[in-house]
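Quick question, first post here. What does this chain look like in 3D?
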Amino acid sequence: MIRAPGLNGVLSAARAAKQLLARRNVFEELLELDKPAVMVAPGLASLSNSNNNSNTRDNSNSSNSNNNNTNMQPQTAPASSSSRAGAPSKPLELRDLSSSLLWLQACSKANTDFQMASSIISRDVAAATASRSIARLMSLLRLEEVLCMLGALGGLGSASPYHSFCRRKAKSWLATSLRQGMKFGLVRPGKDPGLDVKLMLRICVEDSTAELMEKEQLAKAHLLRALDIGFEGSGTLTLSESDLVGMPEELRRDWAAAGWFTGAYSAHNQKLSEGSTGRSSLCAGKYTVPTGRDSMDRIMPYCASASARQRLFEAYHQGFSAGEVNSAALDLLRVRQSLARRLGFRSWAAYELRPLAAAVREPDAARQVLDRCWQHAQPALAPMLQKMRQLAIGCSKHSAGDEVAHIEAYLRALASRESDHLKLAEFLPAEGALKRMLETVGRASNVFFRHVPGQPTGIATGWHSGVRVYEMLDGPPSAAGSARQDRRLGFVYVDLYQRRWARRQLAPGAVLIAPGHVYVGLHYQAPSYGSTKLLTPEDAITMAHEFGHAVHMLCMGGCMQEYDDLPLDVQELPSTFFEVLAAQSSVVEEYARHHASGGPPPDTLARSVQQGPQFFARKLRNLSVGLGLHSEEFDAGNASPRELQAAAVAQWQRYSPIKAHPGFSPLGEDAGMYLALGANQVAYLLCYLRADSLLHANNNSNNNTGQRGPRSKEAAKRWLSPEFATRLRSQLLDRPFPGQRLASL
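> Answer (accepted):
Ran it through. C-alpha cells below.
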C-alpha cells in the first residue's frame, strides 16, 4: 500500500461508499470465483521414465491407477485447460479491499449462511452449505491477514481499534460455527474442500490445549524477534584499511561512508579546540562496521585480517550466547514439548514430521536420512577439506593459534573461489535479471509472464508504484488458437525493492492473496538514484525460488487454505525445483547478461552458482539443530540456556568435520530460523534431493560435476523444452493433494 495515511483514509472511505451505494462487496466477489477444475495427474514421480520408485510420494490415499500412468506421452500442445475456468479478469486493486466495514459485512454474510444451513431438511445439502460457509469465513480471515501485511487493512502500522474489533468478531463467529458444525456432523475435515485443518485443530481442542497453542505462537514470535535483534547486531566495530585488507571495495563502501561521518565529526571537534586548518587524519581509512550477520557474510569469507575476523566473530556470536536468544528458544521448546504430549505425540518433532513423506515421517527416520546424506557427501567434501587444511598452514602466521573452525569461512572462500560470486553480479542487473528470470521460469513450466501495460499501481489502485504487475498465461508466448483471457491463470504482483522508509530488512516471500492473485515480495535493497542495481547470485536464486511458488499457486488452483495446508515437502518442492534449476551452470546464461555489454558470463563464473557439497553440508548442520532440539533426545523442561547452547553445538558438530569454536552459537546461523519454524524444516532436504533427481535422473554420474560441456548444454535445452515443461506441470504443478493426511492428526 502507498505510504500516505491521511490520503489513504479519504480514498478508501470514498471507494467503500461507492461499493455500498452500488450494493457491491469486492471481498465477496474476490472469493466467488468458481474453483478451477484441477486436473488429476499421475503420482509424484520423476519426470523421466526411470527412478519412479525413488521420487514417488508414499501416499496411502492415492489410488493404484495413478501409479500405472507415470509414463506420460510428451505433449506439444501449448496450454492445458486445467486452471482457466476461475481465473480473474483484471488485476487486483488494493483500494477496493481497504474497508474493515465491508470485510466484516462479508464475514457476517458467511456466518448467516451457516446459521441458515441448519434449517435445511436435506442433510447432504445442509452439510455442503455449512462447509462452504465456514470455508468462506476462513478465506476471509486468511485474506485479512494478507491485506494487513500489505498495509491495505488496519493501517500501515498496528491495527486500528475498530479493525481489531472487527477481527475479534469474525474470529468468534468462526469458532462458534466450527464447534456447531463439528458437533452436528456438518463439517468433515479432510473431505470438505477449502477448510483450514490447522485452524480447526486450534479451535476444536480443549481450552487448556488451545491455551498451549496460543502460548506456542507467542513464544515463536518472541524467538523470532530475538533472532532479528541478533542478526542485526548489537553494536559496531571501528576498523581501519589494514583491518579490511583483501575485501573488495563494493563490500565495504557503505561502511566507509559511516566511518567517514564519525571521523569527520571528531575532526571537526579537534579543529575547534586546536585551531587547526585542513582535514584531520581521523577522517581517512575508518570504517564503522555493524556487528550483524550482513557484516559476517561479507568479512568472514573475504577479509584477510585474522584479528578483524576474530573481533567480529566474537562480537556477533556473543549476542546470541549471552543474549536472550537461548532463553527464548528454551521457552519455545518447553511449550512445544508440552503441547506435543497433550496432542498425543512423544515430541514436537514427531508431531510436525507426521504429515511429511514416509522417508522422514518419524524423527528416527529423519535422522537416518541426514546420516545417509552426510555419509554420501564425504567423498565430495574430502578434496575441499584437504585444500582448506593446506591453506590453513599458509595462514597460520595470521591466525595466531586460532582453531581452524575460526577461519573456516575464509578458507572455504579461498578454496572454492567465492570471489567469483562478486564478479558474477556484473551480469545480474536487477531489471534485466527480473525479465529474463521470468522467461526462464516460464519456459520450464509452460507458462508466460506478460507485463500488464499501463502499470495499474499508484494512488488510485493502492499498490505502491514500485510494484510490477504481470498476468500469467498458460502456454508459451507463441501459443495460438486461444484468446488471452482463456489462457489466463492469474496475476502476479512483484515487489522488487524494499521501501526506503522500512525500519528493518524484510525476508523474501510469496503469498497467495486470493485465487488467481499472488504477491511476490523480493525486498532487495533499492539502489541509489541514478545507479544500476546489481544482484548477487544468491539474490537471483531467491528470485527463482519465489517465482516457483507463484507458478505453483496459480497452476494448482484452489483456495488459500488448501495451499496453506499442503505438507511442507509438497508445498516447497516446486519452488525448490526452480531454485535448483536456476543454479545449474548451463541455465545461468539464460538469465545472466552483463549490465553494460549485454554478453553472457564466462563459464568459470557461471559454474560458481552451482550448489556444491559444501552448500548441502551446511544445510545438514542447520537442519540437525532444529531436529535434535525438538526430539526426545533433548529434554527442554529440565535444561538451562547453557545446556541448550551445548546441545545445539553438539547437533551442529554431528555433520561438521571441523571442531566448532568455543564462542560459536549455531543459532546465529540458519539453524536459529529453522528452530523457530519447527522440526518439519527437514522437508527442504527432501525437496533438494527430489529436485536434483528430477533434473539429473537420466544423466550418468559424470554429468553431475558442474562442467559445461556439450552434454550440459543439451540438458539445459531439455529442461526448458515444452515436453519437459508439460510433464512438470502435470506431475508437479497442477497436481492436487488430498487433505486426509493432515486431517488425520
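Residues 5-51+87-214 form one domain.
Confidence is low (pLDDT under 50) at residues 34-83, 258-283, 397-404, 700-710.
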